[in-house]
Amino acid sequence: MELDILGAEKVFIIAELSANHGGSLEIAQETIRAAKRAGADAIKLQTYTPDTITLNSNKTDFLINHETIWDGQTLFDLYKEAYTPWEWHAALFQVASEIGLYCFSSPFDISAVDFLEKLGCPAYKVASAEITDIPLIKYISSKGKPVIISTGMADEDDIKLALETVRKTGNTQIGLLKCTSSYPAPLEEANLIMIEDLEKRFGVVVGLSDHTLGWVAPVVSVCFGARIIEKHFILDYSIGGPDVSFSLDEKNFSEMVSAIRAAELAIGKVDYSLTPKMRKSRDFSRSLYVVEPIKFGEYVTEKNVRSIRPGYGLHPRYFELVIGKKVNRDLEKGDRFKLDFITTPKI
């Protein structure tokens, strides 16, 4: 299916499969079906092998020691546990297609891009750690598909260079995702206000790749202009794995989707015109009414004309104008006051 993430009318919601398959193709396939039931617009894979992303080495450089949930492992062992076998990809793309769910991936080297192209991958995601891999970004963007870039490990210069690289290939289908590359990410480090700034500063569609617990951050991000939401999805927490702590199951993901859709409705658009319901509600606003009988030739005073509810009478803006004027007819308590009732109306 052709994928227009960047022009979607609604927030585009991506369920990230990542390592949440427990080494089982069947679980991966059922996870895709569950993501569809939960309201996701797309399922995203990660396409790499341990050898394409790192080295099998126990040297200090390759040991994880960054205050993460994976500390103590080697990079190779982590990616060996987490990767999605390439021989599964065709089946996963097929399941997604059958149920009307978009399927795309994050490639981590050029061979992965070539592999995904053969599967008709409709878009590409550049992971946070790969934002500095300019040759990879150039190759990905040369395919003419939408390119979504996470910024979790990027400073402003990194983002500028990545965007410049994509645009130089003639590809203008670009999305930027605010991301906090902590696993899980503390809510106080989400810094969602950056989403607004990314859009203004770089002129692209923006969103959130979220690693916080729960779904507060994704929903709030919509209020800051997020048009793409990516959240890790797991079929059942009992599957475990490297990403389970910051993933949502079907129930929680479905709640997130519902909350995002509600937030979209609540945000609305800048529009000062009144809807039919709002106009009807104006019946309960204030207007000028006769509150004590007034005889022909008597003066309008603050005692016999007041601004009260409902709103069928004269607009209260004319209150000072009519005070002190004579009326040209008898008026009863409860009459809607009109400018025609005074002898010398002046506007």
**What is the C-alpha radius of gyration, as a whole number of Å?**
30 Å
CA(first)-CA(last) distance: 63 Å
CATH structural class of the largest domain: Alpha Beta
Order the strands across the largest sheet as they lie in space: 3-2-1-8-7-6-5-4
What is the N-to-C succession of helices and strands?
EHEHHHEHEHEHEHEHEHHEEH
Largest sheet: 8 strands, parallel
Pick out its properties:
2 domains, two-stranded antiparallel sheet, TIM Barrel, about 15% strand, alpha/beta, elongated, 12 helices, 8-stranded parallel beta sheet, about 350 residues, Type Iii Antifreeze Protein Isoform Hplc 12
Give a written overview of the molecule.
The protein is of the alpha/beta class. It has two domains: 8-48 and 83-267, TIM Barrel, CATH 3.20.20.70; 276-341, Type Iii Antifreeze Protein Isoform Hplc 12, CATH 3.90.1210. It is built from twelve helices and ten strands. The protein has helices at residues 25-37, 50-53, 75-82, 89-98, 110-118, 134-141, 156-168, 194-202, 216-223, 250-267, 276-281, 319-322; strands at residues 12-16, 42-47, 102-107, 124-126, 147-150, 174-179, 205-210, 228-232, 287-290, 305-308. Strands 3-2-1-8-7-6-5-4 form an eight-stranded parallel sheet. Helix 1 (25-37) links the parallel strand 1 (12-16) and strand 2 (42-47). Helix 1 (25-37) packs parallel to helix 4 (89-98). The longest helix is centred in the C-terminal third of the chain and has 18 residues, at 250-267. The mean pLDDT is 93.
